[in-house]
Design goal:
- By secondary structure, the protein is of the alpha/beta class.
- The protein has a single domain, classed as Collagenase (Catalytic Domain) (3-Layer(aba) Sandwich), CATH 3.40.390.
- Helix content is about 50%, strand content about 15%.
- The protein is built from five helices and four strands, in the order E-H-E-H-E-E-H-H-H.
- Strands 1-2-4-3 form a four-stranded mixed β-sheet, with helices on both faces.
- Strand 1 (about 1-5), helix 1 and strand 2 (about 35-40) form a beta-alpha-beta unit.
- Helix 1 runs parallel beside helix 4 (about 105-120), helix 3 (about 90-100) packs across helix 4 and helix 4 packs across helix 5.
- The longest helix is centred in the last third of the chain and has 26 residues, at about 130-155.
- It comes from Mycetocola reblochoni.
- One of its GO terms (cellular component) is cytoplasm.
- Its main location: cytoplasm.
- Belongs to the endoribonuclease YbeY family.
- Keywords: Cytoplasm, Endonuclease, Hydrolase, Metal-binding, Nuclease, Ribosome biogenesis, rRNA processing, Zinc.
Length: about 160
């Protein structure tokens, strides 16, 4: 997998963990190892600009996803073909506020948002209740599997 991480936010984050999460999520969702994913971390001003430009909504948001080749999750017999998955843009400052409210670390919130953004890149959405159940259930599976994998890695 080709995953590029560019931190322009001015906030120190565990980029290696985000990279491992990206690798895990794409493998879990059976995306081609030749797929490309970009993760960009930006400050609130840059995120607000993107939020207004692309969603026509004011203020910064936590995560934006920009799919490129409209790739979808693969199956055991047929992984997703190679291609450009797209870009995930995260705002650590917004994630920090949300993390405090949720009672976990900013890093945990960024990992949740990265998993969420990855699912959006693969065509998942949460506009309808059944879509929300599917997407958030898969998001939980990815994060749970990743954290189990991380525990094994540390042993």
């Amino acid at each position: 997998m080709s995953i590029e991480i560019n931190n322009e936010s001015g906030v120190e984050v565990d980029e290696a963990a985000l990279l491992r999460l990206g690798d895990f999520a794409l493998a879990y969702l059976r995306v081609s190892p030749e797929a490309e994913l970009n993760i960009l971390l930006v400050d609130e001003a840059a995120m607000e600009q993107l939020h207004v430009q692309w969603m026509d909504e004011p203020g910064p948001t936590d995560v934006l996803s920009f799919p490129m080749d409209e790739l979808r999750p693969g199956t055991e017999d047929s992984p997703t073909p190679a291609g450009i998955l797209g870009d995930i843009v995260l705002c650590p400052q917004v994630a920090e506020v949300q993390a405090r409210g949720a009672g976990h670390s900013t890093q945990a919130e960024l990992e949740l948002l990265a998993a969420h953004g990855t699912l959006h890149l693969l065509g998942f959405d949460h506009a309808e209740p059944d879509e929300e159940r599917e997407m958030f259930g898969l998001q939980r599976e990815v994060l749970l599997g990743f954290h189990l994998d991380e525990r094994k890695r540390r042993r």
